[in-house]
Amino acid sequence: MILKFIENIGDKTIDIFLEFLEAMKFMFLCLWHMILPSSYNPAMRMVLTKQIYFTSVGILPLFIMMAMFFGSIIIGIVILLARQYNLEESIGSIIINFVMDEFSPFFTALLISLRSGTAINTEIAVMNVNKELNTLREYKINLIDYLFLPRIISGMISVTSLSIIFAIIMLSSGYVFTLFYMNMDFHSYKNLLFSAVEVKDVLVLVLKGLAFGFVITLIPIYSGLKTTNSYTAIPISVLNGMVKLFIAIFLIEVLSLVIQSL
Amino acid sequence: MLENIALIHEVHNHTPVHLAQKEAMEYLIKIESEHIAYKRMHQCNDIELFCIMVIRALMTKEKNIVLLNPLAILKNTEFLKQARETLSILNDEKNIIILENEINRFYYEGMKALDDIQ
Lengths: 262, 118
What we know:
- The complex is a heterodimer of chains A (about 260) and B (about 120).
- Chain A has helices spanning about 1-35, 40-55, 60-85, 90-130, 130-140, 145-180, 185-195, 200-225, 235-260.
- With about 260 residues, chain A is mainly α.
- Chain A has one domain (about 45-260).
- Chain A is globular, with a radius of gyration of 22 Å.
- With about 120 residues, chain B is mainly alpha-helical.
- Chain B has helices at about 1-10, 15-30, 45-60, 70-75, 80-90, 105-110, and strands spanning about 65-70, 95-100, 115.
- Chain B has a three-stranded parallel sheet with strand order 1-2-3, covered by helices on one side.
- In chain B, helix 3 runs parallel beside helix 5 (about 80-90).
- The interface between A and B is medium-sized, with 12 and 14 residues.
Protein backbone atom coordinates (compact mmCIF):
# COMPACT_ATOMS: atom_id res chain seq x y z
CA MET A 1 0.00 0.00 0.00
CA ILE A 2 2.82 2.37 0.85
CA LEU A 3 4.52 1.34 -2.37
CA LYS A 4 1.37 2.21 -4.33
CA PHE A 5 1.20 5.58 -2.61
CA ILE A 6 4.81 6.33 -3.52
CA GLU A 7 4.17 5.16 -7.08
CA ASN A 8 1.20 7.52 -7.34
CA ILE A 9 3.30 10.43 -6.14
CA GLY A 10 5.95 9.51 -8.70
CA ASP A 11 3.43 9.28 -11.54
CA LYS A 12 1.87 12.59 -10.56
CA THR A 13 5.30 14.26 -10.43
CA ILE A 14 6.23 12.96 -13.87
CA ASP A 15 2.88 14.13 -15.30
CA ILE A 16 3.33 17.59 -13.83
CA PHE A 17 6.90 17.77 -15.12
CA LEU A 18 5.85 16.72 -18.64
CA GLU A 19 3.00 19.23 -18.60
CA PHE A 20 5.43 21.93 -17.49
CA LEU A 21 7.82 21.01 -20.33
CA GLU A 22 4.98 21.22 -22.85
CA ALA A 23 3.98 24.63 -21.50
CA MET A 24 7.62 25.83 -21.76
CA LYS A 25 7.75 24.57 -25.36
CA PHE A 26 4.59 26.55 -26.18
CA MET A 27 6.04 29.64 -24.47
CA PHE A 28 9.29 29.50 -26.48
CA LEU A 29 7.32 28.92 -29.69
CA CYS A 30 5.30 32.09 -29.03
CA LEU A 31 8.47 34.04 -28.20
CA TRP A 32 10.08 32.81 -31.41
CA HIS A 33 7.08 33.90 -33.49
CA MET A 34 7.19 37.26 -31.72
CA ILE A 35 10.59 38.05 -33.22
CA LEU A 36 9.82 36.69 -36.71
CA PRO A 37 8.93 39.53 -39.15
CA SER A 38 6.69 37.16 -41.17
CA SER A 39 4.32 36.88 -38.17
CA TYR A 40 3.19 40.47 -38.64
CA ASN A 41 0.69 40.28 -41.50
CA PRO A 42 -2.13 42.86 -41.97
CA ALA A 43 -4.73 40.65 -40.26
CA MET A 44 -2.47 40.17 -37.24
CA ARG A 45 -1.82 43.91 -36.96
CA MET A 46 -5.54 44.64 -37.06
CA VAL A 47 -6.25 42.11 -34.31
CA LEU A 48 -3.34 43.54 -32.27
CA THR A 49 -4.74 47.08 -32.51
CA LYS A 50 -8.19 45.90 -31.43
CA GLN A 51 -6.76 43.88 -28.55
CA ILE A 52 -4.76 46.84 -27.23
CA TYR A 53 -7.95 48.93 -27.37
CA PHE A 54 -10.07 46.31 -25.55
CA THR A 55 -7.41 45.52 -22.94
CA SER A 56 -6.18 48.96 -21.98
CA VAL A 57 -8.37 51.74 -23.38
CA GLY A 58 -11.64 50.14 -22.30
CA ILE A 59 -10.63 49.98 -18.65
CA LEU A 60 -9.14 53.49 -18.42
CA PRO A 61 -12.00 55.36 -16.69
CA LEU A 62 -12.32 52.78 -13.88
CA PHE A 63 -8.55 52.46 -13.71
CA ILE A 64 -7.97 56.19 -13.29
CA MET A 65 -10.65 56.41 -10.58
CA MET A 66 -9.10 53.52 -8.64
CA ALA A 67 -5.61 55.00 -8.98
CA MET A 68 -6.79 58.33 -7.59
CA PHE A 69 -8.79 56.73 -4.77
CA PHE A 70 -6.11 54.25 -3.74
CA GLY A 71 -3.35 56.76 -4.38
CA SER A 72 -4.42 59.28 -1.84
CA ILE A 73 -5.36 56.71 0.83
CA ILE A 74 -2.37 54.37 0.53
CA ILE A 75 0.23 57.10 0.25
CA GLY A 76 -1.40 58.73 3.26
CA ILE A 77 -1.00 55.51 5.23
CA VAL A 78 2.62 55.13 4.08
CA ILE A 79 3.39 58.70 5.23
CA LEU A 80 1.67 58.11 8.60
CA LEU A 81 3.69 54.93 9.16
CA ALA A 82 6.93 56.62 8.06
CA ARG A 83 6.31 59.38 10.61
CA GLN A 84 5.44 56.87 13.32
CA TYR A 85 8.77 55.09 12.80
CA ASN A 86 10.80 58.31 12.39
CA LEU A 87 11.53 57.65 8.75
CA GLU A 88 10.48 61.11 7.51
CA GLU A 89 13.79 61.65 5.74
CA SER A 90 13.21 58.54 3.61
CA ILE A 91 9.55 59.22 2.79
CA GLY A 92 10.37 59.96 -0.85
CA SER A 93 12.22 56.69 -1.51
CA ILE A 94 9.67 54.69 0.53
CA ILE A 95 6.81 56.09 -1.56
CA ILE A 96 8.65 55.57 -4.86
CA ASN A 97 9.77 52.01 -3.97
CA PHE A 98 6.33 51.05 -2.79
CA VAL A 99 4.36 52.61 -5.65
CA MET A 100 6.64 52.02 -8.63
CA ASP A 101 8.38 48.78 -7.70
CA GLU A 102 5.53 46.93 -6.00
CA PHE A 103 1.99 48.26 -5.89
CA SER A 104 1.44 49.63 -9.42
CA PRO A 105 2.58 46.61 -11.44
CA PHE A 106 1.03 44.10 -9.03
CA PHE A 107 -2.35 45.83 -8.79
CA THR A 108 -2.48 46.37 -12.56
CA ALA A 109 -1.60 42.72 -13.14
CA LEU A 110 -4.40 41.54 -10.85
CA LEU A 111 -6.97 43.83 -12.46
CA ILE A 112 -6.03 42.92 -16.04
CA SER A 113 -5.81 39.20 -15.26
CA LEU A 114 -9.33 39.23 -13.81
CA ARG A 115 -10.68 41.22 -16.73
CA SER A 116 -8.72 40.16 -19.81
CA GLY A 117 -7.24 36.86 -18.63
CA THR A 118 -10.63 35.28 -18.03
CA ALA A 119 -11.99 36.70 -21.30
CA ILE A 120 -9.06 35.32 -23.34
CA ASN A 121 -9.24 31.93 -21.63
CA THR A 122 -12.97 31.64 -22.32
CA GLU A 123 -12.64 32.87 -25.90
CA ILE A 124 -9.93 30.35 -26.85
CA ALA A 125 -11.73 27.54 -25.01
CA VAL A 126 -15.02 28.27 -26.84
CA MET A 127 -13.21 28.49 -30.19
CA ASN A 128 -11.57 25.14 -29.44
CA VAL A 129 -14.87 23.45 -28.55
CA ASN A 130 -16.67 24.96 -31.58
CA LYS A 131 -13.87 23.66 -33.87
CA GLU A 132 -13.17 27.22 -35.07
CA LEU A 133 -9.47 26.58 -34.47
CA ASN A 134 -9.67 23.58 -36.79
CA THR A 135 -11.23 25.77 -39.49
CA LEU A 136 -8.37 28.25 -39.19
CA ARG A 137 -5.84 25.40 -39.44
CA GLU A 138 -7.64 24.07 -42.55
CA TYR A 139 -7.24 27.49 -44.18
CA LYS A 140 -3.52 27.34 -43.25
CA ILE A 141 -3.84 30.35 -40.95
CA ASN A 142 -1.17 30.10 -38.27
CA LEU A 143 -2.94 30.21 -34.90
CA ILE A 144 0.08 31.62 -33.09
CA ASP A 145 0.43 34.53 -35.56
CA TYR A 146 -3.26 35.38 -35.91
CA LEU A 147 -4.81 34.52 -32.54
CA PHE A 148 -2.17 34.21 -29.82
CA LEU A 149 0.54 36.72 -30.66
CA PRO A 150 -1.77 39.79 -30.84
CA ARG A 151 -3.16 38.92 -27.41
CA ILE A 152 0.27 38.31 -25.88
CA ILE A 153 1.81 41.50 -27.28
CA SER A 154 -1.25 43.57 -26.36
CA GLY A 155 -1.09 42.15 -22.82
CA MET A 156 2.55 43.14 -22.47
CA ILE A 157 2.00 46.65 -23.85
CA SER A 158 -1.23 47.20 -21.89
CA VAL A 159 -0.01 46.04 -18.48
CA THR A 160 3.23 48.04 -18.79
CA SER A 161 1.53 51.25 -19.93
CA LEU A 162 -1.32 50.92 -17.41
CA SER A 163 1.22 50.32 -14.60
CA ILE A 164 3.02 53.54 -15.58
CA ILE A 165 -0.27 55.46 -15.69
CA PHE A 166 -1.30 53.98 -12.33
CA ALA A 167 2.00 54.97 -10.74
CA ILE A 168 1.81 58.54 -12.07
CA ILE A 169 -1.80 59.05 -10.95
CA MET A 170 -1.18 57.41 -7.57
CA LEU A 171 1.87 59.59 -6.88
CA SER A 172 0.02 62.71 -8.04
CA SER A 173 -3.08 62.03 -5.96
CA GLY A 174 -0.86 61.26 -2.95
CA TYR A 175 -0.11 64.98 -2.91
CA VAL A 176 -3.65 65.58 -1.58
CA PHE A 177 -2.70 63.84 1.67
CA THR A 178 0.69 65.54 1.99
CA LEU A 179 -0.96 68.94 1.45
CA PHE A 180 -3.47 68.50 4.29
CA TYR A 181 -1.39 66.41 6.67
CA MET A 182 2.13 67.72 6.17
CA ASN A 183 1.37 71.17 4.73
CA MET A 184 3.76 70.38 1.93
CA ASP A 185 3.59 72.54 -1.19
CA PHE A 186 3.49 70.88 -4.58
CA HIS A 187 7.00 72.00 -5.54
CA SER A 188 8.49 70.32 -2.43
CA TYR A 189 6.44 67.18 -2.98
CA LYS A 190 7.56 67.01 -6.59
CA ASN A 191 11.23 67.46 -5.60
CA LEU A 192 10.85 64.83 -2.90
CA LEU A 193 9.66 62.28 -5.45
CA PHE A 194 12.03 63.21 -8.27
CA SER A 195 15.06 63.02 -5.99
CA ALA A 196 13.99 59.54 -4.89
CA VAL A 197 13.36 58.08 -8.35
CA GLU A 198 16.20 55.95 -9.69
CA VAL A 199 16.72 54.25 -13.06
CA LYS A 200 16.33 50.95 -11.23
CA ASP A 201 12.75 51.88 -10.23
CA VAL A 202 11.75 52.67 -13.80
CA LEU A 203 13.41 49.46 -15.02
CA VAL A 204 11.64 47.36 -12.39
CA LEU A 205 8.28 48.93 -13.28
CA VAL A 206 8.73 48.30 -17.01
CA LEU A 207 10.19 44.79 -16.69
CA LYS A 208 7.57 43.64 -14.20
CA GLY A 209 4.85 45.09 -16.45
CA LEU A 210 6.21 43.16 -19.43
CA ALA A 211 6.57 39.92 -17.43
CA PHE A 212 3.10 40.21 -15.91
CA GLY A 213 1.55 41.09 -19.28
CA PHE A 214 3.21 38.07 -20.87
CA VAL A 215 1.93 35.52 -18.36
CA ILE A 216 -1.52 37.16 -18.06
CA THR A 217 -2.16 36.30 -21.72
CA LEU A 218 0.00 33.23 -22.30
CA ILE A 219 -1.36 31.08 -19.47
CA PRO A 220 -5.06 31.66 -20.29
CA ILE A 221 -4.35 30.95 -23.98
CA TYR A 222 -2.57 27.70 -23.13
CA SER A 223 -5.33 26.70 -20.72
CA GLY A 224 -7.98 27.42 -23.38
CA LEU A 225 -6.13 25.24 -25.90
CA LYS A 226 -6.17 22.32 -23.48
CA THR A 227 -9.99 22.32 -23.26
CA THR A 228 -11.53 19.01 -24.19
CA ASN A 229 -14.36 18.84 -26.73
CA SER A 230 -17.24 19.65 -24.43
CA TYR A 231 -18.94 22.86 -23.33
CA THR A 232 -18.82 21.69 -19.72
CA ALA A 233 -15.02 21.67 -19.94
CA ILE A 234 -14.91 25.44 -20.58
CA PRO A 235 -15.47 26.66 -16.98
CA ILE A 236 -13.01 24.02 -15.74
CA SER A 237 -10.43 25.32 -18.22
CA VAL A 238 -11.00 28.92 -17.05
CA LEU A 239 -10.81 27.86 -13.41
CA ASN A 240 -7.52 25.98 -13.90
CA GLY A 241 -6.09 28.75 -16.04
CA MET A 242 -6.83 31.46 -13.49
CA VAL A 243 -5.34 29.47 -10.60
CA LYS A 244 -2.14 28.86 -12.57
CA LEU A 245 -2.09 32.52 -13.60
CA PHE A 246 -2.31 33.78 -10.03
CA ILE A 247 0.44 31.39 -8.95
CA ALA A 248 2.59 32.72 -11.80
CA ILE A 249 1.89 36.34 -10.81
CA PHE A 250 2.92 35.66 -7.22
CA LEU A 251 6.02 33.79 -8.41
CA ILE A 252 7.10 36.76 -10.54
CA GLU A 253 6.50 39.08 -7.59
CA VAL A 254 8.60 36.93 -5.25
CA LEU A 255 11.31 36.56 -7.88
CA SER A 256 11.49 40.34 -8.37
CA LEU A 257 11.80 40.86 -4.60
CA VAL A 258 14.63 38.33 -4.43
CA ILE A 259 16.46 39.93 -7.38
CA GLN A 260 16.04 43.43 -5.95
CA SER A 261 17.43 42.32 -2.60
CA LEU A 262 20.64 40.99 -4.19
CA MET B 1 -18.48 38.50 -41.80
CA LEU B 2 -16.53 40.88 -44.07
CA GLU B 3 -13.44 40.46 -41.90
CA ASN B 4 -13.99 36.70 -41.95
CA ILE B 5 -13.81 36.61 -45.76
CA ALA B 6 -11.01 39.18 -46.07
CA LEU B 7 -8.83 37.27 -43.60
CA ILE B 8 -7.65 34.78 -46.24
CA HIS B 9 -5.99 37.39 -48.48
CA GLU B 10 -4.71 39.39 -45.51
CA VAL B 11 -2.86 36.35 -44.13
CA HIS B 12 -1.73 34.54 -47.30
CA ASN B 13 -1.12 37.47 -49.65
CA HIS B 14 -0.35 40.16 -47.04
CA THR B 15 -3.02 42.30 -48.69
CA PRO B 16 -3.73 45.49 -46.70
CA VAL B 17 -6.92 45.27 -44.65
CA HIS B 18 -8.88 47.90 -46.60
CA LEU B 19 -8.04 46.29 -49.98
CA ALA B 20 -8.85 42.78 -48.78
CA GLN B 21 -12.19 43.97 -47.41
CA LYS B 22 -12.89 45.78 -50.68
CA GLU B 23 -12.30 42.54 -52.61
CA ALA B 24 -14.55 40.66 -50.20
CA MET B 25 -17.28 43.28 -50.58
CA GLU B 26 -17.08 42.93 -54.39
CA TYR B 27 -17.95 39.25 -54.06
CA LEU B 28 -20.90 40.08 -51.82
CA ILE B 29 -22.13 42.75 -54.24
CA LYS B 30 -22.04 40.19 -57.09
CA ILE B 31 -24.62 38.09 -55.25
CA GLU B 32 -26.54 41.16 -53.98
CA SER B 33 -25.72 40.33 -50.36
CA GLU B 34 -23.86 43.41 -49.15
CA HIS B 35 -26.10 43.40 -46.07
CA ILE B 36 -24.25 40.32 -44.76
CA ALA B 37 -20.95 42.22 -44.55
CA TYR B 38 -21.49 43.73 -41.11
CA LYS B 39 -23.49 40.89 -39.58
CA ARG B 40 -22.04 38.53 -37.00
CA MET B 41 -22.31 34.77 -37.38
CA HIS B 42 -25.34 34.33 -35.14
CA GLN B 43 -27.20 37.01 -37.12
CA CYS B 44 -26.86 35.17 -40.47
CA ASN B 45 -29.32 32.62 -41.73
CA ASP B 46 -28.25 29.31 -43.30
CA ILE B 47 -28.03 30.49 -46.94
CA GLU B 48 -26.06 33.58 -45.88
CA LEU B 49 -23.58 31.41 -43.96
CA PHE B 50 -23.30 29.13 -46.99
CA CYS B 51 -22.51 32.10 -49.24
CA ILE B 52 -19.85 33.33 -46.79
CA MET B 53 -18.23 29.88 -46.67
CA VAL B 54 -18.21 29.64 -50.47
CA ILE B 55 -16.71 33.11 -50.92
CA ARG B 56 -14.07 32.32 -48.28
CA ALA B 57 -13.17 29.11 -50.12
CA LEU B 58 -12.99 30.98 -53.44
CA MET B 59 -10.46 33.40 -51.90
CA THR B 60 -7.93 30.60 -51.38
CA LYS B 61 -5.31 29.58 -53.92
CA GLU B 62 -6.66 26.02 -54.17
CA LYS B 63 -7.82 24.94 -57.65
CA ASN B 64 -10.49 22.57 -56.32
CA ILE B 65 -13.23 23.37 -53.85
CA VAL B 66 -15.14 20.52 -52.25
CA LEU B 67 -18.59 21.18 -50.78
CA LEU B 68 -19.25 18.46 -48.25
CA ASN B 69 -22.95 17.79 -47.63
CA PRO B 70 -24.24 21.27 -48.52
CA LEU B 71 -27.73 20.32 -47.38
CA ALA B 72 -26.36 19.83 -43.86
CA ILE B 73 -25.42 23.54 -43.88
CA LEU B 74 -28.46 24.80 -45.80
CA LYS B 75 -30.88 22.64 -43.79
CA ASN B 76 -33.71 23.77 -46.07
CA THR B 77 -33.89 22.22 -49.56
CA GLU B 78 -35.55 25.37 -50.88
CA PHE B 79 -32.20 27.12 -50.45
CA LEU B 80 -30.52 24.66 -52.81
CA LYS B 81 -31.58 26.52 -55.96
CA GLN B 82 -30.38 29.81 -54.50
CA ALA B 83 -27.10 28.13 -53.52
CA ARG B 84 -26.63 26.85 -57.08
CA GLU B 85 -27.24 30.34 -58.50
CA THR B 86 -24.74 31.77 -56.04
CA LEU B 87 -22.11 29.27 -57.14
CA SER B 88 -22.76 30.07 -60.82
CA ILE B 89 -22.42 33.83 -60.27
CA LEU B 90 -19.35 33.68 -58.05
CA ASN B 91 -17.22 31.00 -59.61
CA ASP B 92 -15.44 31.21 -62.93
CA GLU B 93 -12.01 29.74 -62.20
CA LYS B 94 -12.16 26.86 -59.77
CA ASN B 95 -13.44 23.30 -59.90
CA ILE B 96 -16.36 22.88 -57.52
CA ILE B 97 -17.03 19.32 -56.39
CA ILE B 98 -20.14 18.58 -54.33
CA LEU B 99 -20.08 15.48 -52.13
CA GLU B 100 -23.56 14.59 -50.94
CA ASN B 101 -25.37 11.66 -49.31
CA GLU B 102 -27.01 9.27 -51.79
CA ILE B 103 -30.31 9.76 -49.97
CA ASN B 104 -30.32 13.44 -51.05
CA ARG B 105 -29.78 12.75 -54.75
CA PHE B 106 -33.49 13.49 -55.38
CA TYR B 107 -32.99 17.17 -54.49
CA TYR B 108 -30.26 17.56 -57.10
CA GLU B 109 -32.13 15.88 -59.95
CA GLY B 110 -33.15 18.17 -62.75
CA MET B 111 -30.26 20.47 -62.00
CA LYS B 112 -27.45 20.77 -64.51
CA ALA B 113 -24.28 19.81 -62.73
CA LEU B 114 -21.93 22.73 -62.11
CA ASP B 115 -19.17 20.19 -62.10
CA ASP B 116 -19.52 16.81 -60.45
CA ILE B 117 -22.07 15.83 -57.87
CA GLN B 118 -20.81 12.65 -56.25
